Each structure stands twice: as C-alpha cells, then as structure tokens.
Amino acid sequence: MELKVLNKEGKETSKKVKLNAGVFGVEPNDHAIYLDVKQYLANKRQGTHQSKERGEIVGSTRKIKKQKGTGSARAGSIKNPLFRGGGRVFGPKPRYYGFKLNRKLKVLARKSALTYKAKEKSILILEDLSIDSPKTKDFSSILNNLKINDGKSLFVMSENNTNVYLSSRNINSSKVITVDKLNTYDILDAQNIVIAESAVSMIDKIFKA
Fold this sequence. Notes:
Elements: E1 2-6, E2 12-18, H1 21-24, H2 30-44, H3 103-119, E3 123-126, H4 136-146, E4 153-157, H5 162-168, E5 174-178, H6 184-189, E6 192-196, H7 199-206
Parallel strand pairs: 1-3, 3-6, 4-5, 4-6
Antiparallel strand pairs: 1-2
Helix pairs in contact: 2-3, 4-5
C-alpha cells in the first residue's frame, strides 16, 4: 500500500511512502489483540485496594452475649463479619495484576491492529513535524488541516519532540508518542493514526517478522 505524504497544512506533497505488507497487511489475530490489550490495562492497575478482616478491626473482643439460652445463634466478638462494622470475609488485598506475554505475540497484536487501521484507511503519513514553540493553537490548527479534529488521533513520532508533545498535551482527543512506545491499545483507541515520515522505517524495523 502506498500513501502520499502530507505536510502540516494538510496538502499532499510529491513524496510517497510504501507501507510494508509484513506489518500493515498481515492476517489479523483477534486473540493476540485481546491478550495485549488485557495486559496493557492490567499493568495500569495500581492494585492498592484493601479491606479489613476481623483481625484488623479496632474493637473489643469481649463475648457480647452468653453462649446458650438466648434463642439466637451464638456470637463472640463484635468484630464478627456477620455484624455491621465487623471485618470483611475474604476481602481484597494489595496485589499485582500484571502478567507476562511473549514478545512475538505482542508484535503480532500490534501488527494486527495496524492492519485493521490500514484497511479502514485511517493511517496518514505526515512530514516530520516541528513546532517552533509550545502552543496548543499551532497543534490544533494541524488537526484542523488534516481534518481529524473530530475524533481521537494518535501521532507516532520517530523521536521525542518536546514542543510537539507540550503543544498536544491540552488536547484530550490527541496523543503523541514515539515509535518505541507504540502499543495495541493506543492504536485501537484512536480513530486516525498519523505517522511521521521518518517513523515508517522504524516501525518496519521494530515489528519485522
């Protein structure tokens, strides 16, 4: 697949970029996508939730009523989980939710996601972007020129560009990342993928078979 390179005014240039079929034209694997997105979301969980069990509740341990003769069930400490204010049975404890995935599976998931976006014609190739100073207005005008300001967009850069990143930070519908941070979740979450011209070859190198 060949795509024309656009400038930041949204106009086509004389340059063209050929997308590697081994990255943007594979047989999509939905289960690999599912696992990679599941791992991404699991790794973002803090896992700091905690509830108190009966041994952690502050309160008296005095037996609240005699064992027999009351006509009701026997009861010991007021910290019993059956009573209001008592401990919780098998409550959540701090834990790590992340899990391991093989690198080849993660690469397959990302190539599958890029293939879906290529089929949807949601990928744009942009000349290497530079902004003189951090201004949200400048980045917003680029989105307007590319006609992608209505939905979520993902800009994939070949290297860190502080001015571009800071200019995009106040726009919730747009995200700027470098090639090495490209992941399945961000690809699928965006309606349009804008790839810098110099980043295309880097994607081929990272995701090569």
